[in-house]
């Protein structure tokens, strides 16, 4: 995916934390996390280092927040879908499609994180793994519910089904292009349909 070369509209009018995140996301996507200095971030954001450290304790915290904001959004949406009264097949399909759409809509964040997550501090890395595990467990619970009630096949363990779908999601940043033949929703529908077909009894 081509990195952004300009800040999103309104960046310099945004509150300082959002401005720092927008600039850090652009620079991390363009140059890589390890090749971007704190000084470059604050200069591009038009703030001081003191302002950055007021909101983020370190560059490590910025990298964590780039991904955490996307994961928070996805968790909120998954929780809402999972708690609805719709049949489990509809809930799983909605959840499977939503994680694709929200990942594509935040593709820089996803690309930066999966390319640079190994550079997080051990504490932050452990925190992110716990946050991702909570999301995956809620998603897996939908599959297990369908398997218990006979809606989904039990031929494949739920853990493997989760890995199958999220393997596709995690690779989106390597091939999806905004100017390609498929919209985010079309990609989401195809991948959700593949998942449901794999679970069909």
Notes on the structure:
This protein has ten helices and no strands. The chain has 201 residues and is mostly helical. 29% of the residues are buried. Residues 1-11 have low confidence and may be disordered.
List the helices and strands and how they pair.
Elements: H1 16-31, H2 38-45, H3 49-55, H4 59-82, H5 88-105, H6 107-116, H7 122-148, H8 158-170, H9 172-175, H10 184-199
Helix pairs in contact: 1-2, 1-4, 1-6, 4-5, 4-6, 4-7, 5-7, 5-10, 7-8, 8-10
Outline, from the CA principal axes? elongated
Helix content, binned percent: over 70%
Distance between the termini: 38 Å
N-to-C series of helices and strands: HHHHHHHHHH
- How many beta-strand runs? 0
Described by strand count, sense and barrel closure, the largest sheet is: none
Content-based structural category: mainly alpha
User: What's the overall average pLDDT, rounded?
Assistant: 90
CA radius of gyration is 19 Å
Q: Please indicate the percent range of residues in DSSP E strands (runs of 2 or more).
A: under 5%
Summed up, the helix count is: 10
Protein name: TetR/AcrR family transcriptional regulator
Domain HTH tetR-type: 14-74
Organism: Streptomyces erythrochromogenes
DNA-binding region: 37-56
Which labels suit this protein?
single chain, 201 residues, mainly alpha, elongated, transcription regulation
């Amino acid at each position: 995916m081509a990195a952004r070369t300009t800040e999103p509209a309104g960046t310099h009018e945004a509150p300082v934390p959002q401005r720092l995140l927008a600039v850090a996301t652009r620079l991390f996507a363009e140059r890589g996390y390890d090749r971007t200095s704190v000084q470059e971030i604050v200069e591009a954001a038009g703030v001081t280092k003191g302002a950055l450290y007021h909101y983020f304790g370190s560059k490590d915290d910025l990298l964590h927040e780039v991904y955490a904001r996307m994961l928070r959004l996805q968790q909120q949406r998954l929780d809402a879908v999972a708690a609805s009264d719709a049949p489990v097949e509809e809930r799983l399909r909605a959840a499977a499609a939503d994680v694709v759409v929200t990942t594509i809509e935040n593709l820089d964040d996803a690309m930066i994180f999966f390319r640079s997550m190994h550079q997080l501090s051990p504490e932050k890395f452990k925190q992110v793994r716990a946050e991702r595990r909570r999301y995956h467990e809620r998603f897996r619970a939908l599959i297990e519910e369908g398997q218990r009630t006979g809606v989904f096949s039990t031929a494949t363990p739920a853990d493997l089904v989760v890995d199958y779908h999220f393997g596709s999601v995690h690779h989106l940043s390597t091939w999806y292009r905004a100017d390609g033949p498929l919209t985010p929703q079309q990609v989401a529908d195809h991948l959700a349909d593949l998942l449901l077909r794999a679970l069909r009894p």
